[in-house]
Amino acid sequence: MGRHGWDSGARRWRLTALLGVGMAALALVITLINTLPGDEGSTRGTTADGDKVHGTPAVPPDEAKSEVGWGFTHTQYSADEGNAAATERVRAELARQGRSVPQIQHIMGWGAGNPEPVKGRFDFSAMDRRMDFIRASDGTPVVTLCCAPDWMKGGESGTDNTDWSQQSLETAPDRAHYKDFAKLAATVAKRYPDVRHFIVWNEFKGFWNDEKARWDYEGYTELYNLVYKELKKVNKDIMVGGPYLVMDSLDPRQTQGTSAKVKGEWGRMDQRPLDAFDYWNKNKAGADFVVVDGSSYTEDDEMLPDEFKATDKFTAVSKWVRARTGGLPLWWAEYYVEPADRNDDRDDWSETHRVAVQASGLMAMARGGATSGFYWNPQKRGEKCAGCLWTATQLDDGGGELPMAELIDRFGKEFGPGTTYEKVSVAADDRPNVRVIADDKVALVVNTLDRPISAKIDGKRFEMQGYEVKWLKR
Questions:
Q1: Shortest CA distance to 192 belongs to which of 248, 251, 130?
Q2: CA distance 244 to 205
Q3: Which class for 429: exposed (0-12), middle (13-18), buried (19 or more C-beta within 10 A)?
Q4: H or E, element range at 92
Q5: Residue 257 half-sphere exposure toward CB, CA atoms < 13 A
Q6: For a Cys-Cys bond, which of 28, 92, 287, 417 suits 67, CB 3.0-4.6 Å?
Q7: How far apart are CA 175 and CA 300, in angstroms?
Q8: Collapsing DSSP states into helix, strand and coil, what is residue 343?
Q9: 370-428 pLDDT, tens per residue?
Q10: Which positions ≥6 away from 5 have C-beta within 8 Å?
Q11: Euclidean distance between CA atoms 372 and 101, whole angstroms
């Protein structure tokens, strides 16, 4: 028995060793197969047919419109993942709003993986999932063409080499790879033929000229023009917009390097983004809409003269942009009214306060002529999520609509593209305390005080709680 047992053990050892050698050889073969010549890195999980149509595209309108209305941006966490019942609640709520809610998704980062880890090899798995959710929720998909794979910006090629640091993500493609990025944009457009709206890049990330201490607007415009032309080759009906500049402002007392014309109690515009915008506007190959973003507060996080009146900046900037573009539709890709902390969190205010100031911001953009705007949804996985649109879908009872979503939903329904705004009568003693916007059917009223008031709007008097947002039928 002893010898038999030893012999059996030896045979098992030899078999295990043989299997081990075989597995090692197989792994080596797989590695070689998944590595392209020239040591360009692993291609594991990628395909060469990135432009193959994904899934069942939603049927777009015969003629795409350059104004999409008010919606939101998907960020790192969204309702495409989590508890099935929770994700379904979000999907169903979006689908039953009576409008196609515009939803932005980036091609890399903010929930999407590296779309082209190796030149000519693609991985759209994460983005496919997001697009599936947008389609299932009957949304209007909008794609932001940012950011760039590592090999386009001096990094390493390969699926295992993606650098997800903020510094890397916010690096622009090298000029030598502008055409490669434009081709990637075309690949995305072919993969998702129901996407008719594309934004080129995000916030001029990586386009800063240290030597001249200004934006590299020449470089951005060159990239934009290449992308614009490639997208139009795919489908002439595709709508393209830029430049997605951050419209920064400074203290109104700051006169050096600021605009003498675009100013108000909220501050003075930094002249550098205005110069960058003018260059792009003059030298662009074309545009179907214009995109900007920014905050109501200054670069020093000052809300002047207060958090509500500071939103008047959105009106001033919108009017300035519209006056320069021949009336092209204006989009705010991002807009912020609450300064962030060092972790980029915005959770110092109560949700009631936050919604009230956000409503004031939406009003201000609309007054300036903007017809589309996207709330940057700071979705998280935990129970606490300041400013989120729905409760975390990772929770069994998640997916419930939150106050910010209710505001965006209602504003989008009532004040969509084509809205004609009308004057509203406000009692003289109420004017300092409320902000109002209206069309012929409804009026939106915001109490800017943290205490109850009695307001008289449109000749009718009613009570409002502190920071209350109220919709009135007209």
A1: 130
A2: 10
A3: exposed
A4: helix 84-95
A5: 9
A6: 417
A7: 33
A8: coil
A9: 999 999 999 999 878 999 999 999 999 999 999 999 999 999 999 999 999 999 999 99
A10: none
A11: 11
Structure tokens at 206: 């990586």
Residues ≥6 apart with Cβ < 8 Å to 98: 413
In whole angstroms, how far apart are CA 334 and each of 115, 196, 261, 465? 23, 20, 23, 29
Half-sphere exposure of 255 (CA within 13 A, CB side): 1
Name, in order, each residue with C-beta under 8 angstroms of 178's C-beta and a sequence gap of 6 or more: 222, 223, 226
CA–CA gap between residue 301 and residue 337 (Å, rounded): 10
Rounded Cα distance, 421 and 469, in Å? 18
pTM score, whole prediction: 0.91
3-state DSSP of 285-324? CCCCEEEEEEECCCCCCCCCCCCCHHHHHHHHHHHHHHHH
Q: pLDDT, tens digit, for every residue of 164-188?
A: 999 999 999 999 999 999 999 999 9
Angle at 433 between CA 428 and CA 434, to 5 degrees: 90
122, 187 contact by CB (below 8 A):
yes
Instruction: Give SS3 for 263.
Output: strand
Q: In what order do the strands lie in the sheet with 434-438?
A: 434-438, 442-447, 469-473
Cα distances (Å, whole numbers) of residue 424 to 333, 363, 431, 460, 473:
28, 13, 11, 11, 12
Going by C-alpha positions, the residue among 198, 186, 175 that lies closest to residue 106 is 198
**CA 160 vs CA 36, 106, 180: distances in Å:** 13, 21, 20
